[in-house]
Amino acid sequence: MTAVICNPIDLPYRFQELTIGPFYRRVVREGADPSVIHYRGRFYLFVSMSGGFWHSTDLKNWDFVATPTLPNYDYAPDVRIIDDQMVVCASHPTKTGNFFRTSDPLGGQWEEIKGALKIWDPNLFQDDDGRVYLYWGCSDKTPIQGVELDRTTFQPIGDPVAFIQGDNKTHGWERRGRDFNPDNDKRSIFLKPFVSANPFIEGAWMTKHNGRYYLQYSAPGTELHTYSDGYYTADSPLGPFTYAPSSPFSSKPGGFMPAAGHGSTFQDEHGNWWHIATMRISKAFMFERRIGFFPAGFDDDGVLFCNQEFADYPMTIPDGPADPWSLSAKAMLLNPGAPTIASSSDPEHGPELAVDEDATTWWVAADANPGQWVQTELTAGSTISSIQVNIAEHELQPTVKRSRKETTMTALWQRHINQTEPATPFVVQVSNDRSDWTTLYDSRATGESRSHVFIELDEPAEYRYVRVTGYAQPYGGRFAVSGLRVFGHGNGEAPAAVTAKALRTGPMDARVSWTAVPGVQGYNLRYGTAADKLYSSWQLDARTSHDLGALNAGQEYWVAVDSFNENGITRGEAVRVQ
To answer: How many CA atoms within 13 Å lie on the side-chain side of 511?
Structure first.
């Protein structure tokens, strides 16, 4: 039976108490740098700062297993299958990276194998001939490297080889700044001292397909909405590697929750390819991030791609082989900018922010009293099929007192993970008259710690109002909703088609423009290296032009602009960038 999911994936992302220097303390959730494998009939998902791993049989429902014997709070945990055993390694800034091996991950018995290298963002890979390789790197100065390892002892064989260095002079998508424009680098005061103008090249992941080696990497920075994944290819696992001009193959700079970098590419039991990657909020802290799944694949020319069109709308997980381009946008958003009211509101966080399609803004109740609610109104005749509720962590303060030593500049960056996963109780209801309410979701009795709940109706139905009511929140926080997103279909027609024109304005830039059509919510800009390879997309609001800064110098491009609203999507015709 097929399943439906909606990005960001609804996991109980772990709370952490964060201290940055002597003055800034916050509680945030974090989950990033995902690695997924399919092992003995089950998917295993490892995520930074999670304290364990999740497992699933359907890519929708995930169960958590704590792993106290692993380096479970190190960053970028990597999981691969080596000689039919699961092997895990992770990043640490000062320690040598060890490896942990098991044939029974649910049983909790792991064999530790001493490593010999200090590694950051590691990735293991076993070739068809049984030889094992390690790739790693996370820096704005040094490249991604690789080396062969002994398949039993995991000790290096030979010297490391350098592969991928940042190149923001010819790779437009590696440039920092708003929309890949380095002139619009709006980093906060907390980020500028730590991040250079160069891209961070990180997140290596190796995939072999039809005898070719695809070494994937991410840039330009995890806190950016332009965080993306590109790749190089080679005929051998240690290169030499050649840049793929279709990079980035995973990029989601638009929509409710943007970014799609530092991930892993894997197959399900039906042979379908998937890419899982890091999405970003980065409001309270640069590492405030989430996880997203995307259909992926290789075309007949061996080009690696992701389908990230409307990638935070409902999407199908098939129960058999499927065309990756058939899985997205199974329902449309019904309430962007819709009339919205609340029981009370913080003066700077009104109810309209719950429906503005921006994960970095949110409605906040005026106080922490239980029973605060936010309510959105739909157009008459709208048919609801699903609802996504995104809970925000608004100015949550740590409850544990820290010593003076811990809160000085010498302890610049402190994390204290909350092991208990405090509950986030709320109720979701629908109505046609605001008097008779039907409850679709109620977590008050379950103790669930969920912040991106996706609710499917048993059958699509017409409703006029959707309300979310919150109760006592973790850390005494006020109830806050960044996205009350209602999906289904409207009662009208999809908008008319548009024809775009595109002009190159620089080696890595193009201005794309089109004529507005009535009744749109927005436009979906698709682009790629040929008219039939428009694999990248950028979801936009109801504007009539966009400066596309993600291009590779010297590469020909084609673009198309689709129009969309609550009734559907109308494809635009591909045109060549002049």
So the answer is: 6
Q: What is the pLDDT of residues 515-547, one digit of tens each?
A: 999 999 999 999 999 999 999 999 999 999 999
Output the six-digit token pair for 80. Answer: 């691969």
- Give whole-number Cα distances, 520 to 119, 497, 523, 548, in Å: 48, 10, 8, 21
> Are 52 and 73 contacting, i.e. CB atoms less than 8 angstroms apart?
no
Q: Which residues pair with 326 in a beta bridge?
A: none
* Alpha-carbon gap, residue 244 to 509, rounded angstroms: 18
Q: Which amino acid is at 165?
A: Q
**333-489 fold:** Jelly Rolls (2.60.120)
Name which CATH class applies to 501-576. mainly beta
Mean of pLDDT values over 4-17: 93
**Strands 426-431, 437-442: pairing kind:** antiparallel
**DSSP assignment, residue 406?**
G
Instruction: Say if residues 285 and 270 touch (Cβ distance below 8 Å).
Output: no
Buried b (16+ CB within 10 A) or exposed e, 138-166: bbbeebbbbbbbeeeebeeeeebbebbeb
Residue 191 has pLDDT above 60, yes or no: no
Contact yes or no for 303/324 (Cβ under 8 A): no
* Beta strand spans in 348-425 (E): 363-364, 372-377, 383-391, 413-417
Question: Given this structure, which CATH class describes domain 32-324?
Answer: mainly beta
Residues, the chain, total?
A: 578
Distance of CA 438 to the CA centre of its chain: 32
> Mind listing the pLDDT tens digit for each residue in 429-469?
999 999 999 999 999 999 999 999 999 999 999 999 999 99
At residue 496, the 3 state secondary structure works out as coil
Residue 56 φ/ψ, nearest 5 degrees: -155, 155
Three-class DSSP category at 476? helix
**Rounded Cα gap, residues 11 and 9, in angstroms:** 6
> What Cα–Cα distance (Å) separates residue 331 from each residue in 5, 328, 569?
11, 9, 10
User: Residue 520 CB: number of other CB atoms within 10 A?
Assistant: 18
Secondary structure (3-state) at 409 = helix
Tokens linked to 467: 């309300």
Structure tokens at 415: 């994390």
Alpha-carbon distance of 430 to 373, in angstroms, equals 13
Q: In this structure, which amino acid lies at residue 150?
A: D
Q: Which two tokens stand for residue 133?
A: 């390789």
Helix (H, G, I), strand (E, B) or coil at 86: strand
In whole angstroms, what is the distance from residue 329 CA to residue 522 CA?
Answer: 14
- The percent of residues above 70 in pLDDT, for the chain, comes to 93
SS3 429: strand
Residue 180 in 3-state DSSP?
helix
Q: What is the pLDDT of residue 178?
A: 83
Task: State residue 180 phi and psi, 5-degree precision.
Answer: 65, 20
For 318, other C-beta atoms within 10 Å of its C-beta total 18
143 Cβ contact partners less than 8 Å away, ≥ 6 residues apart: 137, 162, 163, 164, 165, 201
pLDDT: which is higher, 513 or 26: 513
Q: Express each pLDDT in 348-362 by its tens digit.
A: 999 999 999 999 999
Domain boundaries, the chain: 32-324, 333-489, 501-576
